[in-house]
Amino acid sequence: MISALMPNYKRADLAFEQGEGVWLTASDGRRYLDFGAGIAVSSLGHGHPKLVKTIADQAAKVMHVSNLYRIPQAEKLADLLVKNSFADSVLFCNSGAEANEGMVKMIRRAQFENGHPERTRILCFDGAFHGRTLAMISATGNPAYQKGFGPVVEGFDHAPFNNTNTLRAAITPETAGIIVEPIQGESGIKPATEVFMKALRAVCDEHGIYLGFDEVQTGVGRTGKLFAHEWYGIKPDVISIAKGIGGGFPLGAVLATEELAKHLTPGSHGTTFGGNPLACAAGTTVLEEVLSPGFLNHIHSVGETFGGLLQDVVKRSSGVFDDVRGMGLMRGLHCVPPVGEVMPFVTAAGLLTVGAGDNVLRLVPPLIVTEEDCKIACNKLIEAAEAFVAAGKLEQETVS
Predict the structure, then answer these.
(1) Three-state DSSP class for 295?
(2) What does pTM read for this prediction?
(3) Tens digit of each residue's pLDDT (9 = 90 or more) over 109-118
């Protein structure tokens, strides 16, 4: 018989009852160091006093009123995002996929209103992941996510990631904009090169199309700057964010310049729950913490140390790991044997991680993590590698 919960998740046999900081306590009482953070969501860790108080206080007042009325909490968070980014205006929603849908609609709408109704196509890149809606699995372009869901949604083209030689040839008279992740997360923690990112900006300017960044995973401080595109010294026209902005409470947003945002007029787009008082109160607390003096520098410093520690893990892993990827607190360890075979040993060592494509073990801890926490995590990774080898698994399971 089928379970009450539909079987679309392959869940580990773990249930957590309580969290504190970067630690989670399972129902059997065992503590785990959380370097998955709910897939890069729990930016302030678990049980953060300010965030807990904000959510409790706001829930006791009003949680939802709909966008038929002004929402001061949304106005406050939007002002804070605009003040600290390239953007002139913000649209709130509930998730990363919804933010990416909004970004695509905004790009197409702006081209239409500017007299280019033929410009509807969005250029994406091989290895992308933009979400699970019907349109976003088409934007992602991975057949594994599309299988069984009928025809792909029209209007998305794909080109090789980090390849400037093929970029211009991928632009057509129907191209409305480009969407790219500054660091591809789901496909294996693959950063864009500076040359590629600057080429994207140049080709968009040349052809009169819009440049959008999917910062659902990389945004809100994950790499040591508020948004990952800041490392490249270029200005987008629009970006999507989600995951870390709510600190665990569902929240997404589209940030855009006035050039795009002004075309999203009443009736053109909407959301029932997006930007509700509770979500935006939570988001404001998270963003204020991330923007507090020294916080982003802390992420950058700890992230650099973490990267060095992971290089040492590779050397001491007896061939289980062979490469370190990423930046800041968005890191990946490339596995030699199948990552799905390695992860149970990592979990058994008391460390929570996330799998990724290209046989990568993803490490995305809460942004409050310390260097000492990273050292503990790396010791657990070495312990897991030693246990994997001792079990005789390495000879059996090598894939790379």
Answers:
(1) helix
(2) 0.95
(3) 999 999 999 9
